[in-house]
Every structure is written in structure tokens, then in C-alpha cells.
Description:
Layout: E1 2-7, H1 22-32, H2 48-58, H3 66-82, H4 93-102, E2 106-111, H5 115-124, E3 138-139, H6 146-150, H7 153-157, E4 160-166, H8 169-177, E5 182-185, H9 192-195, E6 202-204, H10 211-224
Parallel strand pairs: 1-2, 1-4, 2-3, 4-5, 5-6
Helix pairs in contact: 1-3, 3-5
Amino acid sequence: METHILWDIDGTLIRNSPDGAAVYREAYTRVTGAAPRRTIQNPHGMTEGQLLAQLLELNGHPSSMLDAVLAELEDRIGALHDSGFTREAVAGGARALREVANRGWTNGLLTGNGPLHSRSKLVAAGYSIDDFSWETSFFGDRSPDRHHLTALVAPLLGAGTHVIIGDTPNDGLAANSANIPFIAVATGVYTVSDLRSTRALVVVEDLERGLEDVLGAISKLNQRG
């Protein structure tokens, strides 16, 4: 049976950016004709589909505008990519991906971002798109929440060991709802203490100092079968 490691992106493989919300605001503004008067206070752990749908609702716009905002978001992401924008990878991220691959496990994604946004962010942080199996990854641009995403894992991947690695309690809750083991890394906005309130197999400060604990927890799952 195969082992799939499903990585979150923001706060897990790349550092959160204070400018990260700007591309969503710009897409929203271009479609609706005005900047949002009300904003999402805590977007961490939300999917793009969820965030933009709630932003439209908060500001009195119909949900039918979501497709147009998502299409505009892709245009904004393309423009960002062409401008040569960069993102910062977390310490130990590249090595963690290599160590997972060296053990014969598959690196995939389970992220609130859409496929284009995911590729753009990862490449901007110095990762290669070849680091990941895109056919066995899960993207949140069309998902109402992370529970919807995690419910897709077992039907697509079938039997085997599947693990979600993320940086928010929402990641953990979504993993729990689908009975998928969760590993937490405190490289986002949540602390080790915050993440210990989840049902994570292990909580690590970062992927540099905590990599052996992460790999060890996954190996134990494989031994259990």
C-alpha cells in the first residue's frame, strides 16, 4: 500500500505573507467594482472558495459572482507570476520533501489554494512543481471548506497510509472529520501550544528541528499497517 503525505502550503511549506490577502482583495474589487467594506478577520485554514464566498456574502453580493471572482483571481495570479514575485520557504521544507521521497512516500498537496495559485506560490518560494504528485493532490478553490477537501482523500487515494501536514487547527479538524492522521507544524500563526489542542500525532516547532519526529510518526503509522 502507498503512503501519501498531503502538505498544506501557506504557513507549512512557505511563510505566511502580509501581502497574501492583497490578491484576493484585488480580484474581488475588479469584479464587484469596489473594495470590500467588510473583511474576513481570520482567514487562516480557509479554502479560497470559502474565503471568497464569505467575502461576497459579507458585502452583500450574490454567491453567483464567485466564479467570476475566481477567474479574475487566476488572472491576478498570472500577473504576479510574470512580475517575478517571491515567497519565502520555511526552514527545512525542501529537505523534508526530499526525505519523504527518499522513503518511497508520495508528496502531495491538500491546500486551500487552487492549482495555479499553488504552483505560483511554490515556485516563487524555490520549490519545484516536480516535488509533488499533482494527480493525487487536493485544491480548495472550488471547495466550501477543508472538510469537503479531506472527504475526497479516501475515495481518490484508496487504501494506504495518508497523512495531512498543516499549521492550523482547521487543518487538524478537517483531518479528524475524515479520520486522516494529522501532523502539525508551528510555522504559521499558531504556536506549538495552540496546536497541541488538536489531535495531532505530533506537533513540531518547524520542519528543520522537528523533521525526525515527523518522519518517525509516519513510519510508525506504516508499521501498524
